[in-house]
User: Which sequence fits this backbone?
């Protein structure tokens, strides 16, 4: 975001530190950081966030579902930090944001995989089954679809997981392989996938 002092900032859902093109450095002073590459400025991945109360607490922890008492809960109800069933530290967004989070992550690894010879996939600590569950539990609503059309007008590309939600069942986002025959639940327990 360049500055982390604002109350409301625009932040990357797919963390900068997860990006294969991330070169470190001290942005904006170090041009070697690659911060002007398209993936750092992709509107499909950028959302407004409360810096101190949400984004700063999330840091670059993976997204997940907290079991037990969270270690931090945003006073505005936008998210919480805690441990998942595997005792990993995760950030859990508000229910109404979970689908958008999942689709942003799916989009990023799909849109940028192979660009400039870089391999993109979900980080090893990011559970794709949780994201797929969130994706289907919180399908695109009118506001997300309107935002999507605006991004298309400005940026010129679309998020296929908003246009065709079942497409998420066809990809193993951990290694970016094609799933030729997904199971009826998209690999996520008792999930109900949309009928074609």
Assistant:
């Amino acid at each position: 975001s360049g500055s982390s002092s604002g109350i409301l900032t625009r932040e990357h859902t797919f963390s900068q530190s997860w990006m294969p093109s991330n070169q470190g450095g001290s942005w904006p002073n170090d041009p070697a950081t690659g911060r002007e590459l398209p993936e750092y400025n992709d509107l499909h991945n950028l959302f407004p966030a409360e810096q101190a109360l949400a984004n700063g607490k999330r840091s670059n922890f993976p997204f997940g579902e907290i079991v037990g008492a969270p270690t931090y809960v945003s006073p505005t109800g936008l998210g919480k930090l805690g441990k998942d069933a595997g005792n990993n530290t995760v950030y859990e967004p508000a229910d109404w944001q979970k689908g958008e989070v999942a689709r942003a992550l799916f989009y990023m690894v799909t849109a940028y995989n192979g660009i400039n010879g870089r391999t993109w996939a979900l980080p090893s600590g990011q559970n794709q089954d949780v994201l797929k569950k969130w994706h289907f539990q919180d399908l695109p609503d009118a506001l997300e679809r309107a935002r999507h059309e605006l991004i298309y007008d400005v940026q010129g590309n679309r998020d296929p997981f908003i246009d065709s939600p079942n497409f998420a069942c066809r990809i193993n986002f951990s290694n970016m392989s094609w799933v030729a025959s997904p199971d009826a639940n998209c690999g996520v327990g008792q999930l109900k996938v949309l009928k074609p």
Q: What stands out?
A: Residues 98-112 form the longest helix (15 residues). The helical segments are 51-58, 98-112, 128-137, 142-155, 160-163.
